[in-house]
Write a structure and sequence with these properties.
This protein is mostly beta strands and 402 residues long. The chain folds into two domains: 36 residues; 289 residues, Porin (Beta Barrel), CATH 2.40.160.40. The chain has six helices and 16 strands. A 16-stranded antiparallel beta barrel has the order 1-2-3-4-5-6-7-8-9-10-11-12-13-14-15-16. Strand 12 and strand 13 form a beta hairpin.
C-alpha cells in the first residue's frame, strides 16, 4: 500500500503507527467508494407576487401560499437532495434525502419537535429490493404520499401556485412503502405509516377517545397505468388512483381526526403532439369531534382540469381549472380559519406561461383567479372580515435546478 508523504513523516517520528495508518486509509477508501455513487441535486425556488386590490389579510388558502407572500418578493424554498439509487442487482440497496430550507419548510410541517426554523426534512428513506417476481422495492423512513396530480417539488408542476386538490391531500408519511412494477403498463404500491399527517415520528390519537395506541396507523395504496408506445397517439398516457386512510393527531387546530383521502387522475396525450390534457378528482372526509357531535358532514370534493401546450422548445402554456365543493366544516377546520369556506363552493382558474430562457432555469409568469360562490372569502384587513368574493394574483416564478 502506498502512503502519502505526511503519513510516512508522522510514522517516522513515532506520532502514528503504520498499522493505524493502514486502517485509516482503508476506512477512507470505504467512505469514498460509498459516496462515489451518491448524487447531489436540488433547486432554488423564488418568486414575486402582486395580489391585486387592497387588503389581503384573507388570501386563497392553497398550500404554500398565504398573506406572508403577498405583494412582495419571496424565497420560497431551497431543496438539497442526496440520492443513491437502486442498481440492477437483485438485493440492491440505497437511500434518498430531500432537505428543505426556507419559509416553505415551515409550511410543510414535518418537524418532529413542532419548532419552525426554516428547515425541514421532506424525505429521508432507505431503499431496498427483494428478488420477488420483477423485484419488490421498499422504502423505510419518511416519503412523499402515494396520491396526487401535483408534486411537492415545484419544478415538476405545470403551475407556480398549488391546486386545492393538492391542498387537501396528505403530503408526507413516516412508515414503510412497497412498490412493484408488474410490467411496463402497471405499477402498484402499498404502505403503512404512523399517521396521515406529515410530522416525523408522530403517533396517532383517535378522535373517539382512548388516547394514542400502537394500532392506530395510516394505510395507503395506489395503482398507475401507462399506455404503451404502440397505442398510436395515446402512447404514454397515464391513469392513476389511490387512497390514504388513518388517524391524524392534529388537524391544524389541535384536534384528532379520522381522515380518508381518495384520488383519481389521468393525463392524456392527444393527436396534437404538443398538447396534453389531464384531470383529477380528490375526495377527503374528516371525522373529528365536531362531526361526531352532529355538526355537519366533514367532506370536501375537488375536481380539476389541466391543459399543457408545448408551443416551442422553450415556451409552454399551462391552464388549470378547479371546482371545490365543501359539504361541511372540514375545509375550514383543517385548511384555513376563514369561516367563508364552510359549506361553500370555490372556483379557481390559473394560466401559466413558462419560458426557459436560461440553462437550468425555469421561469414562469402566472395569473390566478379564485372565486367564492357564496359570501365573501377574500381581502379585508388583519382583524377584520373578508370583503370580496374574488381574489386575483399576478406572479413571477424563477427556479434554478442543479
Amino acid at each position: 500500500m502506498k502512503f502519502n508523504k505526511w503519513t510516512v513523516g508522522l510514522a517516522a517520528v513515532g506520532l502514528v503507527s503504520l498499522s493505524s495508518a493502514v486502517k485509516a486509509e482503508d476506512a477512507a477508501s470505504t467512505v469514498l467508494t460509498s459516496l462515489s455513487s451518491t448524487t447531489l441535486s436540488g433547486y432554488v425556488d423564488t418568486s414575486a407576487q402582486w395580489n391585486l386590490g387592497t387588503g389581503n389579510a384573507n388570501t386563497p388558502p392553497y398550500s404554500f401560499g398565504g398573506m406572508s407572500k403577498a405583494d412582495g418578493f419571496n424565497l420560497n424554498v431551497v431543496q438539497l437532495s442526496l440520492d443513491k439509487p437502486l442498481d440492477e442487482s437483485p438485493w440492491a440497496a440505497g437511500y434518498h434525502v430531500d432537505l428543505w430550507l426556507g419559509p416553505d419548510a415551515n409550511a410543510l410541517g414535518t418537524q418532529s419537535s413542532g419548532t419552525a426554523a426554516d428547515f425541514a426534512i421532506r424525505q429521508a428513506y432507505v431503499t431496498m429490493r427483494t428478488p420477488i417476481g420483477n423485484g419488490l422495492d421498499w422504502k423505510l423512513g419518511v416519503f412523499d404520499t402515494v396520491i396526487g396530480y401535483e408534486s411537492l417539488s415545484s419544478p415538476n408542476n405545470p403551475n407556480y401556485t398549488r391546486s386545492y386538490g393538492f391542498t387537501i391531500e396528505p403530503t408526507t408519511h413516516t412508515g414503510i412503502l412497497a412498490s412493484y412494477r408488474v410490467n411496463d403498463m402497471v405499477a402498484l404500491s402499498a404502505g403503512i405509516a404512523n399517521t396521515i399527517g406529515p410530522a416525523i415520528n408522530n403517533r396517532a390519537v383517535s378522535p373517539f377517545g382512548g388516547g394514542s395506541k400502537e394500532s392506530y396507523k395510516a394505510y395507503m395504496g395506489s395503482i398507475a397505468l401507462t399506455a404503451p408506445s404502440d397505442w398510436s397517439w395515446l402512447g404514454g398516457s397515464t391513469l392513476s388512483a389511490g387512497f390514504v386512510n388513518g388517524f391524524n393527531s392534529n388537524d391544524g387546530e389541535g384536534n384528532a381526526v379520522d381522515q380518508t383521502s381518495l384520488y383519481g387522475g389521468v393525463t392524456l396525450a392527444t393527436p396534437i403532439t404538443a398538447l396534453k390534457v389531464g384531470g383529477s378528482v380528490d375526495f377527503r372526509n374528516v371525522l373529528d369531534a365536531k362531526a361526531i357531535n352532529g355538526e355537519g358532514d366533514g367532506s370536501t370534493w375537488v375536481y380539476a382540469l389541466y391543459t399543457s401546450y408545448q408551443a416551442t422548445e422553450k415556451l409552454s402554456l399551462n391552464l388549470r381549472g378547479e371546482y371545490v365543493y365543501s359539504r361541511g366544516e372540514a375545509f375550514e377546520n383543517t385548511i384555513t380559519d376563514n369561516d367563508a369556506f364552510d359549506k361553500n363552493q370555490i372556483w379557481e382558474a390559473t394560466a401559466t406561461a413558462q419560458y426557459d430562457l436560461w440553462k437550468n432555469v425555469i421561469s414562469r409568469v402566472e395569473f390566478r383567479w379564485d372565486h367564492a360562490e357564496h359570501g365573501k372569502g377574500f381581502g379585508g384587513t388583519v382583524g377584520g372580515s373578508p370583503d370580496r368574493a374574488n381574489a386575483f394574483l399576478l406572479a413571477a416564478n424563477v427556479i434554478y435546478k442543479f
